[in-house]
Specification:
The chain is built from 17 helices and no strands. It is 76% helix and 0% strand. By secondary structure, it is mainly α. Helix 3 runs antiparallel to helix 4.
Length: 358
């Protein structure tokens, strides 16, 4: 009788542990999915974005506006939770997890198009954000720290081999999408290339901007510039400026498939050149930067130039930053990435010189 009671108590304790673990996994998946949902919203409200939908303009898109993007993000939130759960729970190979995420992504795309009346608001973001949600879940399942480096390395292991085979096969077949047509016409591998290499543009352009500007702010305050910073904060949103800075870094370097497909390589080179000039001038932290960006927005919108691929990457960078940000996770990240990726073609010359001096 006593042994039976002990066995029942042991079974009850084990059941309680399993239930607590299940709830903890679901809470973490909700946290990851919420970060992805919030990142999509943070991207679209970043203002002003040249040629893109934002808080004051529909950019080059006559069929889209801010409310449509926000509604689309709401529809996608539960799918991001599902993708994170797949990463947290499934025990197959990284490649099998990638295939599972793709299945969920097709369901997400179907519901998105249904909610938007057939308008493609977030197709590219579903691919990238879904991969990163699942990679974050797998990173936690394997008991690694939730850092951008670990998430992006996990994502590369998930998608690299499959996408490399796909890109080789796509060059021998008739294109069926805008991205495939860009690959065949211009030999630009687009978002697939980003994913199979572990998103080098996030590593070298977006996250370094977020962390670098944050560290500069901290240093300025420690140097006694608190009052000056408070005065500036009354006039402009520092977080919005950081997001704009990251976007313009992307627009200065990334081979945006949306621009290539609609406008061709000459217009893409023009966008690269103008974004680079804007950054060399001082970027969004100058007093008249908003006017310069609004002028770019007017010109790009009238010409139908929209860096939709860069917008998706900005959202992905925001997701990683929101999910992983903390002093110990963010501090020094920019310096470490410059060391590991100092040979990457996406690095700006100024960044290389600054890292060499340090």
């Amino acid at each position: 009788m006593r042994n039976r009671r002990k066995q029942e108590e042991s079974k009850g304790e084990e059941k309680g542990r399993c239930e607590r673990k299940r709830r903890a996994v679901e809470r973490k998946a909700e946290e990851i999915g919420k970060a992805a949902w919030r990142a999509l919203r943070e991207e679209v409200v970043t203002t002003p974005k040249p040629g893109l939908v934002d808080g004051i303009s529909n950019g080059a898109h006559q069929d889209m506006d801010l409310s449509l993007f926000l509604e689309s993000a709401d529809v996608l939130r539960p799918f991001f939770v599902q993708m994170a759960l797949a990463g947290l729970r499934e025990s197959g190979t990284p490649e099998q997890l990638f295939l599972r995420v793709r299945q969920i992504g097709k369901e997400a795309e179907r519901d998105m198009l249904k909610a938007t009346g057939g308008i493609n608001t977030h197709k590219g973001a579903i691919f990238t954000m879904g991969l990163l949600c699942a990679a974050a879940g797998r990173t936690l399942q394997e008991r690694y720290r939730l850092t951008p480096e670990n998430i992006l390395e996990t994502e590369r292991q998930m998608a690299g081999d499959t996408l490399e085979r796909e890109l080789a096969a796509l060059q021998r077949k008739r294109p069926e999408s805008h991205g495939e047509e860009v690959l065949c016409r211009y030999r630009s591998d687009g978002i697939r290339g980003e994913a199979l290499r572990g998103y080098p543009s996030l590593r070298t352009l977006v996250l370094p901007v977020f962390c670098e500007t944050e560290q500069e702010t901290i240093c300025a305050e420690e140097a006694g510039a608190v009052r000056q910073r408070q005065e500036k904060t009354e006039e402009r949103d520092d977080w919005n400026l950081r997001k704009l800075c990251a976007l313009m870094h992307l627009m200065s370097r990334v081979e945006d498939s949306n621009i290539l497909y609609r406008k061709g390589p000459q217009i893409l080179e023009e966008v690269h050149r103008e974004a680079e000039q804007y950054l060399r001038w001082g970027g969004p932290f100058q007093d008249v930067s908003c006017q310069k960006l609004k002028e770019l927005d007017r010109r790009y919108s009238s010409r139908g130039i929209s860096a939709g691929g860069c917008a998706d990457l900005l959202a992905a960078g925001i997701f990683l930053y929101l999910l992983c940000q903390s002093p110990e996770r963010c501090g020094g990240m920019e310096r470490r990435w410059r060391r590991f990726y100092s040979g990457d073609r996406l690095l700006r010359k100024e960044s290389r010189e600054r890292s060499q001096v340090s």
